[in-house]
């Protein structure tokens, strides 16, 4: 009879070569024997007793230790599915990107010999922070973005947020809807059918075709905006392009045209600057000044230029100002009524039900009206700015303005019936007046 211990020291076996070896032995005899062979932990008394009651030859498990439980490695849990391949993952400044979990120390085991079996310690996660990401000040296990942009997990494991997304080629319908929170740079074209939304600025080195594009910042188009009139470009800031043909452009800021605008529909909240460009056909609506090399063409394409509209803005400004005054007076009256009812409540201890209800309603209006007044003041300020812009509304043509061009400045209208050179058109007392360019 002998004892065999496994190399990992987690099991011990009693090797019985002849069942006669077990004759006249008790449990204590076997335990003492295996103790003498170094087995002192996890002894299986029931199995030994069963063997003694039914002696047989072979190997029998008579002791078992506890294996060590190794510590778990630290890891990074992302707020998005990293297995999903995608071009754009928009994140905002301060947004949580991931949580870093620390390693665990593990639990030691014990062998059948009583020896402590050391558990392996977990390894810390490899965390590589690139640009525009950081640990949260209040919790250094949380990774956050420090900038709006595209969240990128590089092949080397670096986590970064890029405020600029570059597309080396064209954007077409195969991209699906492109919606990026930062600045988008397209080295090629934005093809027909594409849909693009940009949270900051847009730079396109090629053309924009019959696509739907919205830009929260400024847009710089190296080529032009061309197609069959099915495109729409809406820029909340300024836009600069070489040419626009058969397309629809809306800009809250200024529009710079370097070569030509042909049969285009342009709505501009600032100025149109086209000193070296021609505007042929289409409709231009602009709050501020329009300047161009020439307007219309030798074929006398119908061209419409509408500038200002100060008359409508002034009318709206009057209504807003009157409403501010009315609400201000109404608020003072409400305060007086509240004061009177409050005095009665103090004197009487309580008010009749209908007067108490009236008091509560008045107090509600007292709190709501200032909010409405604040909104109206903002609207009034914006209208004042628009009126100032309209006050500078004029059309400057450095070359020729051709007949069949319609001009409207601050509501005053003029049909151009013959070609004119070097002209400035302005509104004066409801009439469009022309002066020679060198006279100004």
Keywords:
440 residues; FapA_b_solenoid; OB fold (Dihydrolipoamide Acetyltransferase, E2P); 20-stranded mixed β-sheet; single chain; Flagellar Assembly Protein A N-terminal region domain-containing protein; FapA; alpha/beta; 4 domains
- Report the biggest beta sheet as strand number plus sense, adding barrel if it closes: 20 strands, mixed
Shape: elongated
Number of helical stretches of at least 4 residues: 4
Oligomeric assembly = single chain
User: Helix coverage percent of residues?
Assistant: 10-25%
Structural class: alpha/beta
Stretches with pLDDT under 50, minimum 5 residues:
none
What gyration radius follows from the Cα positions, in whole Å? 41 Å
Number of strands: 33
User: Whole-Å distance between the termini?
Assistant: 121 Å
Query: How many domains, in number, for the residues?
Result: 4
How much of the sequence is in beta strands? Answer: 35-45%
Mean of residue pLDDT?
92
Describe the SSE topology.
Elements: E1 2-5, E2 11-16, H1 27-36, H2 45-53, E3 58-64, E4 75-78, E5 90-91, E6 96-101, E7 109-110, E8 116-117, E9 128-129, E10 133-136, E11 139-145, E12 149-153, E13 158-162, E14 164-167, E15 177-180, E16 183-186, E17 195-198, E18 202-204, E19 212-215, E20 219-221, E21 224-225, E22 232-235, E23 239-245, E24 248-251, E25 255-268, E26 272-286, E27 290-295, E28 303-307, H3 310-348, H4 353-391, E29 394-401, E30 405-409, E31 412-416, E32 420-428, E33 431-436
Parallel strand pairs: 9-13, 14-16, 15-17, 16-18, 17-19, 18-20, 19-22, 20-23, 21-23, 22-24, 23-25, 24-25, 25-26, 26-27, 26-28, 27-29, 28-30
Antiparallel strand pairs: 1-2, 2-3, 4-6, 5-12, 6-11, 7-8, 10-11, 12-13, 29-32, 30-31, 32-33
